[in-house]
Amino acid sequence: MHADRQSVEAIVASLIHMFSHQQYADKVIEQTLAQHPFWDLKSKERYVTDVYNVLRFRRKLDCALGSTQSQNVEFYAWQLWVAMKLLDGVVLPEWPEVVRVSSEQLKQNLAQATDAQQYSYPDWLWQKGLDELGEQWTTVAQALNQSAKTYLRTNTLKVDSNTLRQTLSKSNIETQVLPEAGLEVTQYGPLFKTNAFQSGWFEMQDAGSQKVALLLDVKPGQRVVDACAGAGGKSLHIAALMQNKGYILSMDIQQHKLDTLKKRAKRAGVHTLETRLIKNSKTIKRLKEKFDRVLLDVPCSGIGVLRRNPDAKWHLNSNSVDNLITLQSEILQRYSQMCKIGGRLVYATCSILPSENQLQVTQFLAENKAFKLIEEQTLLPGYTSEYDGFYMAAMERIS
Ligand SMILES: C[S@@+](CC[C@H](N)C(=O)[O-])C[C@H]1O[C@@H](n2cnc3c(N)ncnc32)[C@H](O)[C@@H]1O
């Protein structure tokens, strides 16, 4: 292995930063990449992959290190990286920081590990997965431990997927057009520096996530509300599907996300979209029965997208998931009132837990006879999906 010292030092420094300040990986990675604009693509890739893999397999690595695990955060970060490489069979360079642990000892320690340690999940989440998904959980947990692939959503307001593929290929970024929607990146390059990105021809969006706006079944000229819009991944897709005709109201409780959405909408050439901050319950009440389509892409545990955010499993806990489940049910109950009679409501999460998904919808339908279920889709990594894990349910307001 050619271990590039500068990127390994950056990996260790990033881990120290995350462990000491409880910061999320994506922010630290973004900052580090910005500090190293001259790294070549290989160094960048190595850095990102290794940081995510240490975080993904942290519990397994802790277990492999056993009693040799250090309390000193710098030493510990080096130990994790070294243990990961040794378990992958990599011969390490003779650097002073490369702490000597034997790969035999690592493997021996792992032989005693529980399933939660082997698959590197916290005990509470492992148990929750087993309780909710039964024997499917182990396969799902393993599938969620893979590295994420990169997918693009073609902005059909500006370009078609084949033209986008050919244009990116001229910048040595290779992609393949997916049968249902978007492109998979097969050879990575500086996507966000391309003219195609600057001109709003695409957004990065998981192929599974692209199914949500499709399920909303929007038509040009309709009135649509995306009530948990965030930075607008789905709002922008909806605008493209509506061919920039009609009205989209994108709402969230966080203004900074809506500000990002406005910038993205400008780049994408979307001019049918308005943003609105949800200040209190009146913001929603005033919009009673005003929309043909209501999208509720609710806040969730994000367990379906652990490939992209592997550290999320160390930040979540059982209480935080319970609180999210309560919030989801309140949002579904209150925000669904914005749907007109004859209109469609879509509830979506990036979770694979039935308690955030099917059970929420079943309970809502039992309490709200004005709605009926039209279609449900569960994208379960390892089973029904090679993409991230998602759930979406389309309902019609019948009275
Ligand atoms: C899953 S994310 C949305 C992702 C977004 N739809 C996209 O495609 O990029 C959920 C969003 O719900 C927002 N949120 C949290 N509580 C909310 C509430 N009570 N009402 C509306 N939005 C809320 C969060 O700020 C977050 O942006």
UniProtKB/TrEMBL annotation:
What InterPro entries does the database record attribute to this sequence?
MeTrfase_RsmB-F_NOP2_cat (IPR049560), MeTrfase_RsmB-F_NOP2_dom (IPR001678), RCMT (IPR023267), RsmB-like_ferredoxin (IPR054728), RsmB/NOL1/NOP2-like_CS (IPR018314), SAM-dependent_MTases_sf (IPR029063)
> Domain SAM-dependent MTase RsmB/NOP-type, which positions?
140-399
Which residues are S-adenosyl-L-methionine-binding?
A: 252, 297
Q: Quote the catalytic residue positions.
A: 350
Q: Which UniProt keywords apply?
A: Methyltransferase, RNA-binding, S-adenosyl-L-methionine, Transferase
Asked whether the UniProt record includes Cytoplasm among its keywords, one would answer no
The UniProt similarity line reads: Belongs to the class I-like SAM-binding methyltransferase superfamily. RsmB/NOP family.
List, alphabetically, the PANTHER family matched. Answer: NOP2 YEAST -RELATED NOL1/NOP2/FMU SUN DOMAIN-CONTAINING, RIBOSOMAL RNA SMALL SUBUNIT METHYLTRANSFERASE B-RELATED
* Name of the protein this chain belongs to: 16S rRNA (Cytosine967-C5)-methyltransferase
Which organism does this record belong to? Pseudoalteromonas aurantia 208
- Encoding gene, per UniProt annotation: rsmB
